[in-house]
Amino acid sequence: MSADAATAPAAAAAPRFVLRRYPDLTRIWFGHSLSLLGSHLSTLALPLLVLDTTGSAALAGLVGTVRMLTYLAVNLPAGALADRLPRRWVLVGADLARSAAMLVVGIGLVTGHALPVAVLLVAGAVDTAVSAVAGPAGTAVLRHLVRPDDMSRVVALDSSRRLSVALVGPLLGGALYQVAPALPFLVDGVSYAASLLMILCVRRDLGGGRPTRSTLRQDVAAGIRYVLRSRFIVVFMVWATVVNFATAGMTFGVIVVIGPNDANRLGVVMTVLTLAGIAGSALAPRLGRWGQQRLVQLSTASAVAVGVVIALFPHPVVIVAAVGARALLAPAAAITFNVRVFALVPDDMTARVQSTLFFVGGAFNPFASVVSGWLCDRFSPSVAFAGFAALLAVILLVTFLPAARQP
Protein backbone atom coordinates (compact mmCIF):
# COMPACT_ATOMS: atom_id res chain seq x y z
CA MET A 1 0.00 0.00 0.00
CA SER A 2 1.34 3.44 -0.88
CA ALA A 3 1.99 6.06 1.77
CA ASP A 4 -0.57 8.35 0.16
CA ALA A 5 -3.28 5.71 0.25
CA ALA A 6 -2.47 5.00 3.87
CA THR A 7 -3.30 8.58 4.81
CA ALA A 8 -6.73 8.45 3.16
CA PRO A 9 -9.81 8.91 5.38
CA ALA A 10 -10.93 5.88 7.33
CA ALA A 11 -13.51 3.79 5.54
CA ALA A 12 -15.89 3.76 8.48
CA ALA A 13 -16.15 7.54 8.48
CA ALA A 14 -16.39 7.93 4.74
CA PRO A 15 -19.50 8.97 2.81
CA ARG A 16 -21.44 6.43 0.85
CA PHE A 17 -20.05 7.25 -2.57
CA VAL A 18 -16.42 6.36 -2.98
CA LEU A 19 -15.62 9.28 -5.28
CA ARG A 20 -16.52 11.75 -2.52
CA ARG A 21 -13.94 10.19 -0.25
CA TYR A 22 -10.97 10.72 -2.54
CA PRO A 23 -10.77 14.09 -4.34
CA ASP A 24 -7.75 13.09 -6.43
CA LEU A 25 -9.51 9.92 -7.54
CA THR A 26 -12.48 12.08 -8.56
CA ARG A 27 -10.23 14.24 -10.74
CA ILE A 28 -8.63 11.20 -12.40
CA TRP A 29 -11.98 9.45 -12.82
CA PHE A 30 -13.76 12.38 -14.48
CA GLY A 31 -10.73 13.13 -16.65
CA HIS A 32 -10.56 9.55 -17.86
CA SER A 33 -14.33 9.50 -18.40
CA LEU A 34 -14.10 12.51 -20.70
CA SER A 35 -11.19 11.08 -22.67
CA LEU A 36 -12.85 7.66 -22.93
CA LEU A 37 -16.05 9.22 -24.27
CA GLY A 38 -14.09 11.26 -26.78
CA SER A 39 -12.18 8.17 -27.87
CA HIS A 40 -15.40 6.35 -28.66
CA LEU A 41 -16.52 9.28 -30.81
CA SER A 42 -13.43 9.21 -33.02
CA THR A 43 -13.22 5.40 -33.12
CA LEU A 44 -16.56 5.38 -34.92
CA ALA A 45 -15.96 8.55 -36.94
CA LEU A 46 -12.53 7.67 -38.37
CA PRO A 47 -13.62 4.70 -40.56
CA LEU A 48 -16.71 6.69 -41.59
CA LEU A 49 -14.47 9.53 -42.70
CA VAL A 50 -12.23 7.19 -44.70
CA LEU A 51 -15.31 5.64 -46.32
CA ASP A 52 -16.74 9.07 -47.22
CA THR A 53 -13.39 10.28 -48.50
CA THR A 54 -12.43 7.28 -50.61
CA GLY A 55 -15.65 5.32 -51.15
CA SER A 56 -13.66 2.18 -50.30
CA ALA A 57 -15.02 -0.17 -47.66
CA ALA A 58 -11.68 -2.00 -47.68
CA LEU A 59 -9.77 1.16 -46.74
CA ALA A 60 -12.37 1.95 -44.08
CA GLY A 61 -11.88 -1.53 -42.63
CA LEU A 62 -8.13 -0.99 -42.71
CA VAL A 63 -8.55 1.62 -39.96
CA GLY A 64 -9.62 -1.06 -37.48
CA THR A 65 -6.91 -3.45 -38.65
CA VAL A 66 -4.18 -0.84 -38.20
CA ARG A 67 -5.47 -0.01 -34.74
CA MET A 68 -5.55 -3.68 -33.72
CA LEU A 69 -2.05 -4.40 -35.04
CA THR A 70 -0.69 -1.26 -33.39
CA TYR A 71 -2.16 -2.29 -30.06
CA LEU A 72 -0.71 -5.79 -30.29
CA ALA A 73 2.71 -4.40 -31.24
CA VAL A 74 3.03 -1.88 -28.40
CA ASN A 75 1.01 -3.47 -25.61
CA LEU A 76 3.80 -5.27 -23.75
CA PRO A 77 6.44 -2.50 -23.99
CA ALA A 78 3.69 -0.02 -23.05
CA GLY A 79 3.34 -1.63 -19.63
CA ALA A 80 7.10 -1.48 -19.10
CA LEU A 81 7.14 2.21 -20.00
CA ALA A 82 4.28 2.89 -17.59
CA ASP A 83 6.32 1.33 -14.76
CA ARG A 84 9.63 2.90 -15.79
CA LEU A 85 8.47 6.52 -16.23
CA PRO A 86 6.65 8.77 -13.72
CA ARG A 87 3.02 7.82 -14.27
CA ARG A 88 1.70 11.35 -13.93
CA TRP A 89 3.79 12.44 -16.91
CA VAL A 90 2.93 9.27 -18.83
CA LEU A 91 -0.74 10.19 -18.54
CA VAL A 92 -0.13 13.86 -19.32
CA GLY A 93 2.03 13.04 -22.34
CA ALA A 94 -0.52 10.51 -23.58
CA ASP A 95 -3.36 13.01 -23.41
CA LEU A 96 -1.23 15.65 -25.12
CA ALA A 97 -0.30 13.32 -28.01
CA ARG A 98 -3.85 12.00 -28.44
CA SER A 99 -5.32 15.50 -28.34
CA ALA A 100 -2.89 16.67 -31.02
CA ALA A 101 -3.61 13.69 -33.28
CA MET A 102 -7.37 14.19 -33.17
CA LEU A 103 -7.23 17.99 -33.45
CA VAL A 104 -5.08 17.69 -36.58
CA VAL A 105 -7.89 15.69 -38.20
CA GLY A 106 -10.66 17.96 -36.89
CA ILE A 107 -8.97 21.23 -37.82
CA GLY A 108 -8.04 19.83 -41.23
CA LEU A 109 -11.70 19.10 -41.91
CA VAL A 110 -12.85 22.51 -40.65
CA THR A 111 -10.35 24.33 -42.88
CA GLY A 112 -11.35 22.26 -45.89
CA HIS A 113 -8.04 20.48 -46.39
CA ALA A 114 -8.32 17.04 -47.97
CA LEU A 115 -6.56 14.72 -45.58
CA PRO A 116 -4.78 11.74 -47.19
CA VAL A 117 -5.82 8.32 -45.99
CA ALA A 118 -2.27 7.79 -44.72
CA VAL A 119 -2.67 10.76 -42.34
CA LEU A 120 -5.94 9.35 -41.01
CA LEU A 121 -4.37 5.92 -40.49
CA VAL A 122 -1.41 7.49 -38.67
CA ALA A 123 -3.76 9.50 -36.46
CA GLY A 124 -5.61 6.32 -35.50
CA ALA A 125 -2.35 4.46 -34.91
CA VAL A 126 -0.96 7.25 -32.70
CA ASP A 127 -4.18 7.34 -30.68
CA THR A 128 -4.07 3.56 -30.19
CA ALA A 129 -0.35 3.35 -29.39
CA VAL A 130 -0.45 6.13 -26.82
CA SER A 131 -3.64 4.73 -25.29
CA ALA A 132 -1.87 1.39 -24.87
CA VAL A 133 0.66 3.15 -22.62
CA ALA A 134 -1.92 5.25 -20.79
CA GLY A 135 -4.19 2.25 -20.06
CA PRO A 136 -1.91 0.28 -17.71
CA ALA A 137 -0.54 3.52 -16.23
CA GLY A 138 -4.08 4.68 -15.42
CA THR A 139 -4.86 1.34 -13.80
CA ALA A 140 -1.63 1.30 -11.79
CA VAL A 141 -2.23 4.73 -10.23
CA LEU A 142 -5.40 3.55 -8.49
CA ARG A 143 -3.45 1.99 -5.61
CA HIS A 144 -1.99 5.44 -4.88
CA LEU A 145 -5.41 7.06 -4.69
CA VAL A 146 -7.58 4.77 -2.54
CA ARG A 147 -7.38 2.49 0.46
CA PRO A 148 -7.09 -1.24 -0.28
CA ASP A 149 -10.50 -1.94 1.28
CA ASP A 150 -12.10 0.42 -1.25
CA MET A 151 -10.36 -1.05 -4.28
CA SER A 152 -13.25 -3.35 -5.25
CA ARG A 153 -15.65 -0.39 -5.32
CA VAL A 154 -13.27 1.65 -7.46
CA VAL A 155 -12.64 -1.18 -9.94
CA ALA A 156 -16.40 -1.78 -10.15
CA LEU A 157 -16.95 1.94 -10.76
CA ASP A 158 -14.35 1.86 -13.53
CA SER A 159 -16.08 -1.12 -15.14
CA SER A 160 -19.47 0.64 -15.01
CA ARG A 161 -17.95 3.72 -16.59
CA ARG A 162 -16.42 1.80 -19.49
CA LEU A 163 -19.68 0.00 -20.23
CA SER A 164 -21.73 3.20 -19.95
CA VAL A 165 -19.45 5.07 -22.32
CA ALA A 166 -19.47 2.11 -24.73
CA LEU A 167 -23.27 2.38 -24.78
CA VAL A 168 -23.49 6.15 -25.26
CA GLY A 169 -20.29 6.94 -27.17
CA PRO A 170 -21.04 5.38 -30.57
CA LEU A 171 -24.55 6.88 -30.61
CA LEU A 172 -23.20 10.33 -29.83
CA GLY A 173 -20.32 9.91 -32.28
CA GLY A 174 -22.70 9.03 -35.10
CA ALA A 175 -24.96 11.99 -34.28
CA LEU A 176 -22.04 14.44 -34.21
CA TYR A 177 -20.66 13.10 -37.47
CA GLN A 178 -24.02 13.68 -39.13
CA VAL A 179 -23.96 17.32 -37.99
CA ALA A 180 -20.37 17.86 -39.18
CA PRO A 181 -17.62 15.28 -39.82
CA ALA A 182 -15.10 17.42 -37.92
CA LEU A 183 -17.11 17.49 -34.68
CA PRO A 184 -16.25 14.03 -33.28
CA PHE A 185 -12.53 14.70 -33.73
CA LEU A 186 -12.66 18.19 -32.26
CA VAL A 187 -14.65 16.98 -29.26
CA ASP A 188 -12.23 14.08 -28.81
CA GLY A 189 -9.24 16.43 -28.91
CA VAL A 190 -10.83 18.75 -26.35
CA SER A 191 -11.75 15.80 -24.11
CA TYR A 192 -8.09 14.72 -23.98
CA ALA A 193 -7.05 18.27 -23.14
CA ALA A 194 -9.60 18.37 -20.30
CA SER A 195 -8.31 15.04 -18.99
CA LEU A 196 -4.76 16.45 -19.07
CA LEU A 197 -5.81 19.40 -16.91
CA MET A 198 -7.53 17.08 -14.43
CA ILE A 199 -4.36 15.00 -14.05
CA LEU A 200 -2.24 18.10 -13.47
CA CYS A 201 -4.57 19.01 -10.58
CA VAL A 202 -3.95 15.69 -8.80
CA ARG A 203 -1.85 16.26 -5.69
CA ARG A 204 -0.82 12.74 -4.75
CA ASP A 205 2.21 10.94 -6.08
CA LEU A 206 1.07 8.51 -8.77
CA GLY A 207 4.07 6.20 -8.72
CA GLY A 208 6.40 5.06 -11.46
CA GLY A 209 9.71 6.66 -12.27
CA ARG A 210 11.76 3.95 -10.59
CA PRO A 211 15.54 4.16 -11.12
CA THR A 212 16.70 1.35 -13.38
CA ARG A 213 19.62 0.31 -15.53
CA SER A 214 17.69 -2.39 -17.36
CA THR A 215 16.62 -2.08 -20.97
CA LEU A 216 12.99 -1.87 -22.02
CA ARG A 217 13.19 -5.42 -23.36
CA GLN A 218 14.48 -6.64 -20.00
CA ASP A 219 11.63 -4.85 -18.23
CA VAL A 220 9.08 -6.52 -20.50
CA ALA A 221 10.69 -9.92 -19.88
CA ALA A 222 10.65 -9.32 -16.12
CA GLY A 223 6.92 -8.61 -16.24
CA ILE A 224 6.21 -11.78 -18.20
CA ARG A 225 8.35 -13.85 -15.82
CA TYR A 226 6.50 -12.41 -12.85
CA VAL A 227 3.16 -13.46 -14.34
CA LEU A 228 4.41 -16.95 -15.20
CA ARG A 229 5.74 -17.49 -11.67
CA SER A 230 2.27 -17.06 -10.20
CA ARG A 231 0.18 -20.19 -10.75
CA PHE A 232 -2.86 -18.25 -9.56
CA ILE A 233 -2.43 -15.50 -12.18
CA VAL A 234 -1.59 -17.99 -14.94
CA VAL A 235 -4.71 -20.06 -14.29
CA PHE A 236 -6.98 -17.06 -14.39
CA MET A 237 -5.18 -15.58 -17.39
CA VAL A 238 -5.96 -18.80 -19.27
CA TRP A 239 -9.52 -18.63 -17.95
CA ALA A 240 -9.95 -15.03 -19.12
CA THR A 241 -8.48 -15.79 -22.54
CA VAL A 242 -10.85 -18.69 -23.21
CA VAL A 243 -13.90 -16.97 -21.75
CA ASN A 244 -13.24 -13.77 -23.73
CA PHE A 245 -12.82 -15.77 -26.94
CA ALA A 246 -15.95 -17.86 -26.40
CA THR A 247 -18.04 -14.87 -25.31
CA ALA A 248 -16.96 -12.87 -28.36
CA GLY A 249 -17.82 -15.85 -30.56
CA MET A 250 -21.29 -16.21 -29.04
CA THR A 251 -21.89 -12.46 -29.36
CA PHE A 252 -21.15 -12.69 -33.08
CA GLY A 253 -23.45 -15.71 -33.21
CA VAL A 254 -26.24 -13.57 -31.79
CA ILE A 255 -25.67 -11.11 -34.64
CA VAL A 256 -25.95 -13.96 -37.16
CA VAL A 257 -29.15 -15.30 -35.59
CA ILE A 258 -30.99 -12.00 -35.15
CA GLY A 259 -29.30 -9.40 -37.35
CA PRO A 260 -30.50 -10.36 -40.83
CA ASN A 261 -34.11 -10.57 -39.69
CA ASP A 262 -34.47 -7.66 -37.29
CA ALA A 263 -31.69 -5.11 -36.83
CA ASN A 264 -33.78 -3.19 -34.29
CA ARG A 265 -34.16 -6.29 -32.14
CA LEU A 266 -30.42 -6.86 -32.38
CA GLY A 267 -29.92 -3.35 -31.03
CA VAL A 268 -32.21 -4.21 -28.13
CA VAL A 269 -30.16 -7.33 -27.36
CA MET A 270 -26.88 -5.40 -27.35
CA THR A 271 -28.40 -2.66 -25.20
CA VAL A 272 -29.70 -5.21 -22.68
CA LEU A 273 -26.27 -6.84 -22.64
CA THR A 274 -24.56 -3.53 -21.84
CA LEU A 275 -27.12 -2.42 -19.25
CA ALA A 276 -26.92 -5.78 -17.50
CA GLY A 277 -23.13 -5.43 -17.46
CA ILE A 278 -23.44 -1.99 -15.84
CA ALA A 279 -25.80 -3.42 -13.22
CA GLY A 280 -23.44 -6.34 -12.66
CA SER A 281 -20.53 -3.95 -12.13
CA ALA A 282 -22.55 -2.05 -9.54
CA LEU A 283 -23.36 -5.31 -7.73
CA ALA A 284 -19.79 -6.63 -7.92
CA PRO A 285 -18.58 -5.35 -4.51
CA ARG A 286 -21.54 -7.09 -2.81
CA LEU A 287 -21.16 -10.28 -4.83
CA GLY A 288 -17.46 -10.27 -4.00
CA ARG A 289 -18.36 -11.60 -0.55
CA TRP A 290 -19.11 -14.95 -2.18
CA GLY A 291 -15.41 -15.42 -2.85
CA GLN A 292 -13.47 -15.10 -6.05
CA GLN A 293 -13.29 -18.76 -6.99
CA ARG A 294 -17.03 -19.26 -6.52
CA LEU A 295 -17.79 -16.15 -8.57
CA VAL A 296 -15.54 -17.29 -11.41
CA GLN A 297 -17.18 -20.71 -11.38
CA LEU A 298 -20.69 -19.23 -11.36
CA SER A 299 -19.78 -16.78 -14.12
CA THR A 300 -18.31 -19.53 -16.29
CA ALA A 301 -21.22 -21.87 -15.60
CA SER A 302 -23.65 -19.13 -16.61
CA ALA A 303 -21.76 -18.70 -19.91
CA VAL A 304 -22.02 -22.45 -20.52
CA ALA A 305 -25.75 -22.25 -19.81
CA VAL A 306 -26.13 -19.36 -22.28
CA GLY A 307 -24.50 -21.39 -25.04
CA VAL A 308 -26.62 -24.46 -24.34
CA VAL A 309 -29.91 -22.56 -24.01
CA ILE A 310 -29.42 -20.56 -27.21
CA ALA A 311 -28.27 -23.67 -29.07
CA LEU A 312 -31.53 -25.39 -28.11
CA PHE A 313 -33.88 -22.38 -28.25
CA PRO A 314 -32.48 -19.68 -30.60
CA HIS A 315 -35.45 -17.38 -30.06
CA PRO A 316 -34.84 -13.61 -29.60
CA VAL A 317 -36.65 -13.49 -26.25
CA VAL A 318 -34.61 -16.43 -24.96
CA ILE A 319 -31.42 -14.79 -26.21
CA VAL A 320 -32.20 -11.50 -24.44
CA ALA A 321 -32.94 -13.29 -21.15
CA ALA A 322 -29.88 -15.53 -21.40
CA VAL A 323 -27.29 -12.87 -22.27
CA GLY A 324 -28.79 -10.47 -19.72
CA ALA A 325 -28.51 -12.99 -16.89
CA ARG A 326 -24.95 -13.86 -17.91
CA ALA A 327 -23.92 -10.18 -18.04
CA LEU A 328 -24.97 -9.68 -14.42
CA LEU A 329 -22.40 -12.19 -13.16
CA ALA A 330 -19.54 -11.58 -15.58
CA PRO A 331 -18.27 -8.25 -14.17
CA ALA A 332 -18.13 -9.52 -10.58
CA ALA A 333 -15.71 -12.33 -11.49
CA ALA A 334 -13.42 -10.02 -13.47
CA ILE A 335 -13.49 -7.28 -10.84
CA THR A 336 -12.65 -9.56 -7.92
CA PHE A 337 -9.76 -11.00 -9.92
CA ASN A 338 -8.40 -7.53 -10.74
CA VAL A 339 -8.63 -6.50 -7.09
CA ARG A 340 -6.71 -9.62 -6.11
CA VAL A 341 -4.02 -8.77 -8.66
CA PHE A 342 -3.64 -5.34 -7.04
CA ALA A 343 -3.14 -7.04 -3.68
CA LEU A 344 -0.55 -9.50 -5.02
CA VAL A 345 1.54 -7.43 -7.42
CA PRO A 346 4.07 -4.82 -6.21
CA ASP A 347 3.58 -1.25 -7.41
CA ASP A 348 6.64 -1.17 -9.67
CA MET A 349 5.35 -4.23 -11.55
CA THR A 350 1.64 -3.35 -11.77
CA ALA A 351 1.52 -1.82 -15.24
CA ARG A 352 3.61 -4.63 -16.77
CA VAL A 353 1.40 -7.30 -15.25
CA GLN A 354 -1.73 -5.47 -16.41
CA SER A 355 -0.42 -5.09 -19.97
CA THR A 356 0.53 -8.79 -20.06
CA LEU A 357 -2.94 -9.79 -18.88
CA PHE A 358 -4.62 -7.49 -21.42
CA PHE A 359 -2.41 -8.77 -24.22
CA VAL A 360 -2.92 -12.48 -23.54
CA GLY A 361 -6.53 -12.15 -22.43
CA GLY A 362 -7.59 -10.53 -25.70
CA ALA A 363 -5.10 -12.15 -28.07
CA PHE A 364 -7.62 -14.53 -29.63
CA ASN A 365 -10.63 -12.21 -29.69
CA PRO A 366 -10.03 -11.05 -33.29
CA PHE A 367 -10.44 -14.66 -34.44
CA ALA A 368 -13.64 -15.33 -32.50
CA SER A 369 -16.00 -13.86 -35.11
CA VAL A 370 -14.20 -15.75 -37.90
CA VAL A 371 -14.54 -19.07 -36.08
CA SER A 372 -18.13 -18.33 -35.11
CA GLY A 373 -19.06 -17.33 -38.66
CA TRP A 374 -17.41 -20.47 -40.11
CA LEU A 375 -19.31 -22.71 -37.69
CA CYS A 376 -22.58 -20.97 -38.54
CA ASP A 377 -21.97 -21.32 -42.30
CA ARG A 378 -20.55 -24.82 -42.24
CA PHE A 379 -23.05 -26.27 -39.77
CA SER A 380 -25.57 -24.00 -38.03
CA PRO A 381 -25.73 -21.28 -35.36
CA SER A 382 -26.88 -23.90 -32.87
CA VAL A 383 -23.71 -25.89 -33.48
CA ALA A 384 -21.64 -22.73 -33.01
CA PHE A 385 -23.26 -21.99 -29.65
CA ALA A 386 -22.91 -25.60 -28.58
CA GLY A 387 -19.23 -25.59 -29.55
CA PHE A 388 -18.47 -22.48 -27.51
CA ALA A 389 -20.46 -23.91 -24.60
CA ALA A 390 -18.32 -27.07 -24.72
CA LEU A 391 -15.13 -24.98 -24.71
CA LEU A 392 -16.41 -23.05 -21.70
CA ALA A 393 -17.32 -26.29 -19.93
CA VAL A 394 -13.68 -27.38 -20.24
CA ILE A 395 -12.38 -24.12 -18.79
CA LEU A 396 -14.98 -24.42 -16.02
CA LEU A 397 -13.19 -27.57 -14.87
CA VAL A 398 -9.93 -25.59 -14.71
CA THR A 399 -11.46 -23.22 -12.15
CA PHE A 400 -11.73 -26.13 -9.70
CA LEU A 401 -7.96 -26.67 -9.70
CA PRO A 402 -6.15 -25.84 -6.43
CA ALA A 403 -4.11 -23.15 -8.23
CA ALA A 404 -7.35 -21.24 -8.88
CA ARG A 405 -7.80 -20.59 -5.18
CA GLN A 406 -6.75 -17.28 -3.74
CA PRO A 407 -3.15 -17.45 -2.48
Layout of helices and strands, plus pairs?
Elements: H1 3-6, H2 18-21, H3 23-54, H4 57-84, H5 87-110, H6 117-140, H7 151-179, H8 183-200, H9 216-229, H10 231-258, H11 263-287, H12 292-312, H13 316-344, H14 350-361, H15 365-378, H16 381-398
Helix pairs in contact: 3-4, 3-6, 3-7, 3-8, 4-6, 4-9, 4-14, 5-6, 5-8, 6-14, 7-11, 7-13, 9-14, 10-13, 10-15, 10-16, 11-13, 12-13, 12-16, 15-16
Q: What does it look like?
A:
This protein is mainly alpha-helical. It folds into 2 domains: 3-200, Up-down Bundle (Growth Hormone, Chain: A); 222-404, Up-down Bundle (Growth Hormone, Chain: A), CATH 1.20.1250.20. Helix content is 80%, strand content 0%. It is built from 16 helices and no strands. It has helices spanning 3-6, 18-21, 23-54, 57-84, 87-110, 117-140, 151-179, 183-200, 216-229, 231-258, 263-287, 292-312, 316-344, 350-361, 365-378, 381-398. It is globular. It starts with a helix and ends in a 9-residue tail after the last helix.
